[in-house]
Every structure is written in C-alpha cells, then in structure tokens.
Amino acid sequence: MVRYKLYQDNRKNSTTRGQWYGRAAVMGVTNLEALSDRIQRNCTAKRSDVQAVLTELVEAMADELKAGNRVKLDGFGSFKIGIRTKGAETAKAFTVQKNVKGLHVLFQPEVKRSADGTRVKTFLTGVQVSEYAEYDKPDEEEEQEP
Q1: From CA 52, how far away is CA 57, in angstroms rounded?
Q2: Beta partners for 100?
Q3: Section 18-26 average pLDDT
C-alpha cells in the first residue's frame, strides 16, 4: 500500500497557490542486506552470494553509465545519465565548464501491456493508494488565501 500526506502549495508566485496535493509518504527503508535476505528465501542462492552479485551489479552499472551507455535490466527498467545545463547564446559558446550545471541518473521502469492494451509500469501493477494515518493532517481553516 502506498500512502500519501496532504500538503498545500504555498509558493508566492505559483498559479496553483493554495491548492492541496498528495505527496507519497515513505514508510521505511530497505537496504541491500534486507533485500538479500528476502531473495535468499525465494531461491537457492545464499544471502552472501546475492549480496556479492548485487554489489557487483552496482559497480558494473556505474561503469556502463559513465561510458555513456543506457543500462537495461529486463523486467526491471532502464537507467541512463541525464545532464542539467544552462543555455548559451550560440552553439559555439556552449562549454562544459560554463553550461553543464549537474548530472543525475534517470530511471525508466519497464512497461508491459495489459490485457486491454494499456501500458502498465512493472513496479506499479497492483499498487493501491490510501492516506497516511499517522501525521498531523492540515485543517481546512489553515488554508492560505491565494
């Protein structure tokens, strides 16, 4: 179950100022060791073997991404590096030093076609959403005037 918390857009110059939105709430963190334990229970590989493979997967993926490749894990999704840049007046004026402002990793989950032909992301199949019960919910009186 994915849970959400409500928040209000309070940005001064926002065209949606005052409107309410849901934001996914993180329920906890699962680390490599916990995943390895879970995988060990579901297959014949030992936890230490699973950890070794997953650790090497991270290193191998980093090498491939640094080489400019997209890394596709069948049944999982694809990873690639994206860049954040600042505009230049001309193509000739564009340089890495002046215009590249940052790097990030983009993830695209694998998509399958359902029986009715709609596209469904692998990790979202069967996910249900409900409001997070244990947080200070905002009152309607607290709403900001737009």
Answers
A1: 9
A2: 85
A3: 89
CB 81 within 8 A of CB 104: yes
Return all residues near 1 (Cβ < 8 A) that are at least 6 apart. 127, 128, 129, 130
Closest to 79 (Cα-Cα) out of 100, 55, 57? 57
DSSP 8-state assignment for residue 123: G
97-124, pLDDT tens digit by residue?
999 999 999 999 999 888 898 888 888 8
pLDDT computed for residue 27 by the predictor: 84
82-119 burial code (b ≥16 CB/10 A, e <16): eeeeeeeeeeeeeeeeeeeeeeeeeeeeeeeeeeeeee
Asked if 105 contacts 79 with a C-beta cutoff of 8 angstroms, the reply is yes
At residue 96, what is the residue type? V
C-beta contacts of 133-141 below 8 A and 24+ residues apart? 133/3, 135/5, 135/25, 137/6, 138/6, 138/7, 138/8, 138/20
Global pTM reads 0.71
Assess whether pLDDT exceeds 50 at residue 146: no
Residue 65's nearest CA partner among 52, 55, 54, 80 is 80
